Amino acid sequence: MEVDVINMKGEKVSTVELPGAIFAAPIKIDLMHQAYVRQIANGRLGTHSTKGRSEVSGGGRKPWRQKGTGRARQGSIRAAQWVGGGKIFTPKPRSYEKAMPKKMRRAALRSALSAKASEGEIVLIDELKIDEVKTKVMEQALETIAGNKTILLLIPGNDPEFDDIKRACANLSNVKTLLASYLNIRDLLGYKQIVIPLAALDVIESYLG
After folding, report:
1. Could you tell me the pTM of the whole model?
2. Which end of the chain lies in a sparser environment, N or C, as judged by fewer CB atoms within 10 Å?
3. Which of 58, 188, 199 is nearest to 110 (CA)?
4. Can you name the residues that pair with 197 across neighbouring β-strands?
């Protein structure tokens, strides 16, 4: 698949042949769904906790005698039906982690990238650079190259030269910057346009190609 490469002004500078193994892979919706559910589940802390009858304080003696009062029998004021009593069948700390083999996770990424490419939602730029480190300048540049849509901007690496780009994008509500090596199914499916510098494309190809 041949795609135009543009600069930050929206001008075409060249064309690039996207790797077919990554951007023309079979689109497997069930696999993408499984990877998405896994990522959401693994993000859950699982620290929720409530106290059962044996964990709440008080209730050490029987509130009244078994018979003769005309009231229902009670064994403890900390039983579940009492205010302040322990809870029944309530959450305890647990792990929601789901396992998924690396090959399947990467296949899901290829499927998502292929789906984006087939819909024309992949934008290649030659170089990630702006004249002024200002949010307004960055906003105008991204609107020119990707339109007024939600944008996932891939950063080639953690080099200091990209710090200005991250700062300029920080206050843009429709833009997220992400290291190319941290590409994940949730962000791929959650943003309309994927803006990829050529250097970031090399990073993606290095582990998905």
Report:
1. 0.85
2. C
3. 188
4. 125
Identify the burial level of 203 via C-beta atoms within 10 angstroms of its C-beta, where 0-12 means exposed, 13-18 middle and 19 or more buried.
buried
Q: How many CA atoms lie within 13 A of 70 on its CB side?
A: 0
Report if residue 191 sits inside a domain.
yes
Please give the full DSSP string across 139-196, using - where no structure is assigned: HHHHHHHH-SS-EEEEES-S-GGGHHHHHHHTT-TTEEEEEGGG--HHHHHH-SEEEE
In a domain, 74, yes or no: no
Q: What is the per-residue pLDDT across 29-39, written as a single tens digit (0 to 9) for each?
A: 999 999 999 99
Separation of alpha carbons 60 and 83, rounded Å: 15
**Structure tokens of 195?**
């803006």
Locus of tokens 């490469």: 5
pLDDT tens, residue by residue, 152-198:
999 999 888 899 999 999 999 999 999 999 999 999 999 999 999 99
User: So what's the pLDDT on residue 97?
Assistant: 97
**pLDDT tens-digit profile of 82-103?**
999 999 999 999 999 999 999 9
Q: Is residue 183 part of a domain?
A: yes
Q: Is residue 94 part of a domain?
A: no
